[in-house]
Design a protein that fits this description.
The chain is 15% helix and 29% strand. It has 6 helices and 18 strands. Strands 9-8-7-10-11 form a 5-stranded parallel β-sheet, sandwiched between helices. It has a 4-stranded antiparallel β-sheet with strand order 5-2-1-6. It binds FE2/S2 (inorganic) cluster. This is Vanillate O-demethylase ferredoxin subunit. It comes from Variovorax guangxiensis.
């Protein structure tokens, strides 16, 4: 396996958004524009202590953003080190290696209305998407779920004139009559052409999925921070990878991932999260023949793509365009 090429950015500004969330503005060290991206994209941040985490870009690309990136980092109580490292060890002026932006959560061109549901820090990609939609005059609604106003990150951007008419806030500790969104009634009916995008903590994602269980799969788009608690293992029965372009087969043992098996024969597939979340390891292949265990591909993408860090063959063989 291999890590993707990195670039170095300078931490231009750190601002506290809530008691638990800091925003980091990242710029090119010599003032050049950073690589362009589309709303919904994320980057890998390689931080002090050897940790690497994915963070969504929380601002739509625009002339005003001057090629800079903004990420929001919530300090997790159960941090395995990543969010604690960002909060405690990273300071303004520091240089950080990051990956180029990658987008597995894009806005769908075919949608006639976009319904964006954000839980807590999950608002970061959806904020960028809402800004992009507002800039192009598209029809959208942004629903943000937070504990209270005090726990609402990027409040200035949310309340900006371009977004305010599209914003619905659900505050757990807010005024019960005016600031509650009932997911079941919100999602009970789907107007034709509406696409639903959701990002937030695991429980929130599940609640949305349950309430939208009757929505067509291709109209529901999710971005997970971590694999759901009930996610299956990435190992399983042995199978064979058939590499169509090379004309060879590669065995995958029961305790191996496809990425590991390919690495053993000298074929390096770039990886990042290794949990099926980020899309870095996705390749073209016979998706119909795969047992998909990722959380980043849509139903239609799964017909011809496979995330090799976690997915396996349904049967004895899986063909890939490698
Ligand atoms: S490495 Fe992230 S989806 Fe496979």
């Amino acid at each position: 396996m291999s890590l993707e090429r990195t670039l170095t950015v300078r931490v231009e500004r750190i601002s506290r958004q809530t008691p638990e969330i800091l925003a980091f503005e990242l710029a090119h060290p010599w003032g050049r524009p950073l690589p362009s991206y589309e709303a919904g994209a994320h980057i890998d941040v390689h931080m002090p202590g050897g940790f690497s985490r994915q963070y969504s870009l929380a601002r739509a690309p625009s002339a005003a953003s001057a090629g800079r990136y903004v990420i929001g980092v919530k300090r997790e109580l159960a941090s395995r080190g990543g969010s604690a490292s960002m909060h405690e060890r990273v300071r303004e002026g520091d240089l950080l290696p990051i990956s180029a932006p990658r987008n597995t959560f894009p806005l769908r061109e075919e949608a006639t209305h976009h319904l964006l549901l954000a839980g807590g820090i999950g608002m970061t990609p959806l904020l960028a998407m809402a800004q992009a939609l507002a800039a192009r005059g598209a029809a959208f609604t942004l629903c943000v779920f937070a504990r209270s106003e005090e726990h609402l990150a990027f409040a200035d951007a949310l309340h900006a004139p371009a977004l305010a008419p599209h914003l619905r806030l659900h505050l757990d500790q807010g005024d019960a009559s005016s600031q509650r969104i009932d997911l079941r009634s919100l999602l009970a009916q789907r107007a034709p052409g509406t696409h639903l995008y959701v990002c937030g903590p695991g429980g929130f994602m599940q609640a949305v999925r349950d309430a939208a269980a009757h929505w067509p799969e291709d109209a529901l788009h999710t971005e997970y921070f971590a694999a759901p608690a009930d996610a299956g293992a990435v190992t399983g029965l042995p199978f064979t990878l058939k590499l169509a372009r090379r004309g060879i087969t590669v065995p995958v043992a029961a305790d191996q991932t496809a990425v590991d098996a390919l690495h053993e024969v000298g074929i390096d597939i770039p990886v990042s999260c290794q949990q099926g979340l980020c899309g870095t390891c996705v390749v073209e292949g016979d998706g119909e023949g795969a047992e998909h265990r990722d959380f980043c591909l849509t139903g239609s993408e799964r017909r011809h793509k496979v995330a090799l860090c976690c997915s396996r063959a349904k049967g004895l063989e899986l063909e890939l365009q490698l």
